[in-house]
Amino acid sequence: MAVKHYAQIEFDLFSDPKFRGLSSNDVRFIYLTAHCSKLSNYLGIFRYPIEIWSYDSNVKPAEIQAALSELEAKGLVEYDQDTQTLRLIGWFYTLNGPRNGNQMKGHIKSFLGLSRCDPEMLCRSVAEFTVSSFSAASLWENDSPEHRKVNDAFRTFLKYLHFKFGTGFGEILENEINASGKDTFGAIQAVFHMLSSGGPSTVEPFRKGFETVSKQEMTGEENIKNQKKTNVVHDGKHIVSASPLSETMNSRLAMEARGSQK
How far is 250 from 230, CA to CA, in rounded Å? Predict the structure, then answer.
């Protein structure tokens, strides 16, 4: 991962209601310290043990924990105690967001290199990065070769995350689009077909976390179960299928068998 030698902090931060609403300048300083840490990176999500944060801020660990609770409540950061990972929320919507194809591809490579990171935190960071990147790409010339380069990179990256984390990733990405970049929906859907075709809309989960299942999926699962029930009859102690299931009819062995009968 690329080493970071400087921090970019927008002047607008000091007029941000969340930042100004913090209880003291001490808490504000602790927040700014995280931006300037040598452990930080270009993704705004990095491992930052409380002890090191305490040393960087020159305050006691208990003060970091207290400030952290306030910063999380304000929606400025999220912190995973198990992996000691910090995420600076809104990172990619500032000067730290990528502006060209090479930066975007470099960030994707850095994301793939992250280790011991909370899955949901990682997905929220990637969702923010994705929306920010496609917002920036919308300002490029239509015939810019950067479009194809970035689309190919995101197509592979987002598909990888979908297979790694399941539908939970798509739900987080859709919610980020709803909140911060509805105008990017079409461009993102073009490279990530797992988004709903009806446009931006909040997905309501049945269960918390990455085991969430949409209402459409639940209905589909129920239909499959009902179909299996109607295709099964009891014959004494054995269960016999009344008619072959589509999975059986379309299996490789079945197709070969049908071919050998011709």
Answer: 19
Both tokens assigned to 172: 């987080």
Q: Where are the beta strands (DSSP E) in the chain?
A: 45-47, 77-80, 85-88, 232-235, 238-241
Domain that holds residue 17: 1-89
Instruction: Quote the number of domains for the chain.
Output: 3
Angle, in degrees to the nearest 10, between helices 167-180 and 146-165: 130
Domain end call among 32, 64, 89: 89
Measured CA to CA, the distance from residue 157 to residue 136 in angstroms comes to: 18
For residue 34, the domain's CATH number is 1.10.10
* pLDDT per residue as tens digits for the range 237-255: 433 333 444 444 455 544 5
Q: Are residues 76 and 110 in the same domain?
A: no
- pLDDT tens sequence across 116-151: 899 999 999 999 999 999 999 999 999 999 999 999
Closest CA to 127 of 178, 86, 85, 76: 178
Report the distance separating Cα 122 and Cα 126, nearest Å.
Answer: 6
pLDDT greater than 80 at residue 166: yes
Clarify whether residues 221 and 162 are in a common domain.
no
Q: Is 20 left (phi over 0), alpha (psi -120 to 50) or beta?
A: alpha
Task: Give the chain's mean pLDDT.
Answer: 82
Residue type, 38: K
Pair (101, 209) in one structural domain: yes
